[in-house]
Amino acid sequence: MNISKSIKLFEEAQKYIPGGVNSPVRAFKSVGGNPLFIESGNGSKIYDVDGNEYIEYIGSWGPHLFGHNPPFIKNALVEMLEKGTSFGAPTELEIEMAKLIINLVPSIEMVRMVNSGTEATMSAVRAARGYTGRDKFIKFEGCYHGHADYFLIKAGSGALTFGVPTSPGVTKGNAKDTLNADYNDIESIKNLVAENKGEIAAVIIEPIAGNMGVVKVSDEFIKELRSICDEEGIVLIFDEVMTGFRVARGGAQEVLGVKPDLTTFGKIIGGGLPVGAFGGKREIMQKIAPVGPVYQAGTLSGNPLAMSAGYAALKHIKDNPGVYDTLEKNSSYLEKGFKSNLEKLGKNYAMNRVGSMQCMFFTEEKVNDFKAAVKSDTELYGKYFHEMLNRGIYLAPAQFEAVFVSTAHSTDDLDKTIKAHYESLAAII
Ligand code: KE4
After folding, report:
1. Catalytic one among 177, 239, 261, 369?
2. 0.85 exceeded by the pTM?
3. Do 190 and 249 share a domain, yes or no?
4. pLDDT tens-digit profile of 262-287?
5. Are 205 and 139 in contact (CB under 8 A)?
6. Which ligand 1 atom sits nearest the alpha carbon of residue 157?
7. Distance (Å, rounded) from C-alpha 8 to C-alpha 37?
8. Which CATH number does the domain housing residue 339 bear?
9. What is the model's pLDDT at position 161?
10. Residues 88 and 226 reside in one and the same domain
11. Which residues partner with 153 through β-bridges?
12. Which residues pair with 46 in a beta bridge?
């Protein structure tokens, strides 16, 4: 496959942008090779600058639930562009967006828009600290909540891929208030709560993790976590930046049947534009400036252009609940195809799927937590990634991510992907 233009562009990009990219995982560091520079996307396909076509499963890391450039989002953007992009003043569309999120997610009573998932999670932890008057919070090894200092303590996702559990530049001050528990291990929570009695403001969790590959909490774990937070007055934050509107209309909290106190969103709620949000119990959200003392702000938060794309995406979800039947049909079809390939090849790689998020781990052990996930052979994943890429299938350039299936993936796309999956594995094992 000719990727000479991408090679040239990557060389040039590295002169002006750290690592040639604006987000590390895009640099293909953990799979090797030259990242592809993308020219355009349409439906389930993306096209690189050398004119190669790929059936893709990154979906811009989650936002593209309906594939690239669906007409209803494009039209909403074009319409808004006629009126302007951002005014730095309240607009009616922001009320409609807030009401729509509240309507779709029962645990949300109030919501604040921000510009990224990181801003959402950073603000949610600050809200919990302001509300409880406590400093410490618990996160889980292998979960990734964005790059705010206090999260880059044994983060998953990019940091995990780099194998550097703690990023330089994060001060000891930050690290001391961040406690790390083990995913799906309620004893680790009980120990931390006992050791830090009355000092813990929040627990933040990816209730269905997508940043150590796809790993779901057990029902008993999440129910026990909920009751411990209730007993201890700890704010339970579900980081649904990835799972929100992805794994179900009401997100992971609908799948699990557990209500958090705060939820963070991103990705899908921006319809491809930079949008994040955090929301939940009114008594907590009323602590947020300007009505409350917890400061939180953003020049472009809720800007009309991003809201028009995000609102169009969520309105489409509200008006077409069948979206999740299509996502389930496509995702289970792909999973079934992959599993039958593994059987034919005599391989028993762990396959985890929740709705339209799935991950095949290059380990034959079950993967229910971070420790098991990191046993995956990332070297082999790199080879698999390139074998698939050379067959026109674009997956996440890192083992510890998710495959995102959209409503735009046709049966023909899925069949081609299943065939490429068989040939790629046969070529490397
Ligand atoms: P952003 O700041 O990247 O919008 O969101 C951070 C974030 C927070 N919470 C969860 C559960 C997330 O998955 C993310 C971001 N996800 C990664 C993909 N693993 C974004 C890709 C990237 O870093 O370029």
Report:
1. 239
2. yes
3. yes
4. 999 999 999 999 999 999 999 999 99
5. yes
6. 19
7. 10
8. 3.90.1150.10
9. 39
10. yes
11. 166
12. 41, 54
